[in-house]
Amino acid sequence: MRWKYYIASCLRLVDLVQSxxxxxxxxxxxxxxPGRSDALWLDLGIGLLDFLRESAIETxxxxxxxxxxxxxxxxxxxxLVDEDFQYICNLLSNSSVFHFPVSLENRIVQxxxxxxxxxxxxxxxxxxxxxxxxxxxELAGTTSEWAYSDEDAQKILKALDLEDYPKALQFSxxxxxxxxxxxxxxxxxxxxxxxEELKSDFVKFHEAYEKILENVQKACxxxxxxxSTATFEESMEQWALGRDIDLESYHLRRSFQALxxxxxxxxxNFASLLSAVANRQRESVGIxxxxxxxxxxxxxPPSPKMVLELWEKLGPCQPEFTYATxxxxxxxxxxxxxxxxxxxxxxxxxxxxxxxxxxxxxLLERHGREMSEELLNGPVSLxxxxxxxxxEVDSEVDGLALLVGVYTLPERLKLPFxxxxxxxxxxxxxxxxxxxxxxGDNIALIALDNKEALGV
Amino acid sequence: xxxxxxxVYSFLVEHRIVESRPxxxxxxxxxxxxxxxxxxxxxxxxxxxxxxAQGMDLQIFTDTDVxxxxxxxxxFMLCRKPEVEPPLFGVSQALGHLRESPTEPKDVTGVWFxxxxxxxxxxxxxxxxxxxxxxxxxxxxxxxxxxxxxxxxDHIEQxxxxxxxxxxxxxxxxxxxxxxxxxxxxxxxxxxxRAMEESRLVESLKDEPDVFRQTLLGAIEMNNLFxxxxxxxxxxxxxxxxxxxxxxxxxxxxxxxxxxxxxxxx
Lengths: 456, 266
Fold this sequence. Notes:
A: 456 residues; mainly alpha; three-stranded antiparallel beta sheet; elongated; B: mainly alpha; 10 helices
């Protein structure tokens, strides 16, 4: 029966061998024997399969973007374009069928699928290996099914004996990938109807499977013990001398530890999986046609309350916290202050004013009366104001600038005159003090409606 | 330990998923540290009890359990429980993404959510022939902005062709779906997917930000909550028997559809 799988995994590769597609052209299959002499498409196809195989080990066979593969390949073959990679992907994912004879007497045939890779339906670049594709890569690596894994585990020990450390690492990685794949298959068998053959095999042979796991684990632990000694590290360092291989004892230890962890988890899961598989009375919802469900929601719409419940259970939601508002916090603060003090707390908006006089007010406080009285007698020039020392306030203010400011804000003097203005007298002034100097026009403050002082 | 518990809890409440080795994205801020803290079995046990009291489940998966987890990686998730309402989670923010204006009534937004949610699940489940219980196939489940938008348009056109129902509640739903303005549908679809992404039920692809894949969290919650939730949502007499086939151990990967037989997917 293995021939069927062998043929299934080969057909697409044969297409690549026979392809006469030209680089840069539309990604359609052009078949002609004997194909390109440089085997370009076969090389790309195998490279892509190897890339997806390595990704499967790292991601548990998740869909991955092929962009890194494309970019790496274009570095060595810059004449290739995106359409060429699309051609390879189209060909390898071609899901044609072939007929394989089962019984010639009764003319019963089975149908085999041939796609080696599959694309995530809504993406352009996300791919992964199909089961047939995984088999193709495994056949190329001549590995066997998981039921014979205890033999493969012994191969790890043999490779260590023969100091074939790259092989030991390869066997370990392949074995781990196979264990993980088996674990996933068992879970899938529980989740969906079908997989009857796997389930019945598991129920029938579970003791043998547990024994296999036990043997693999023993071999793995032996291998781990061997590579964890100082002696082994030294001998491996000796082995690595003169060899162009980037391999250390750490790589082997890490791989065997990962394999051991995988085996521990698998054997822990075995017991629970066994009881679940053995229990054949299982309720299943099956496949729901959600497009028709959406029409059902129109014909018999659920109440808004029920829709909200569905949303809260199954729909998008975010953490939501309640928190006090600022009004709540002010109230709490007032209560706390009142509890601690004898009198109630008082805040600014409740009418208590503590006004601090600004610099100009301090100047007017000191000299404003004099200035007002002088203005009653007539215009007051800046020169006169400076000579009388009306710029002196205190050490914190620039009195000269403030005095000029009075001339720009005469209403601060609180005079009975309404028509105050500033005029310019003839001679300029230059006045010096210890704090600074003032030069410029000699301006005067004039009360226009002080007719008596002006002699009008 | 309480400080560590607080740090882990705070991260999980905000992000819902912790990956010790994220595959399709970078580490979120603080995620690496939280993943290391979660390797402590005592803290893990305390955390599981703590969140259980709040209506949530702490679920843990390794690369051996499901695909889509990095080699030697672990994934920790905070899942909603079916039988309780988690007090921490609400829909206000998601509502904001879906509604057309701040004054839009909640009932109207609810109608849009329900239909877009069903159509999104068409891509995640029906179109790939996947039952809601098939958690492991979450890596195959994806949708795109364009795909969901086109499907939504087709759905509304189908609604229009059915004509306005006589039932007042159904007529109101008909009115809401068929009276949308130009570009409104596109905004709602994008808002819906954005809400799903922020809730970690889907994630966008690194190379193609308009394509969204279901996360493991989304698949787990759908499996845990679907039967108990949707069963109450539809009338048990006629819709439920059409929608869900509560059969025992079916012989093949087939479920009932609303037409009464055959494969579920079109």
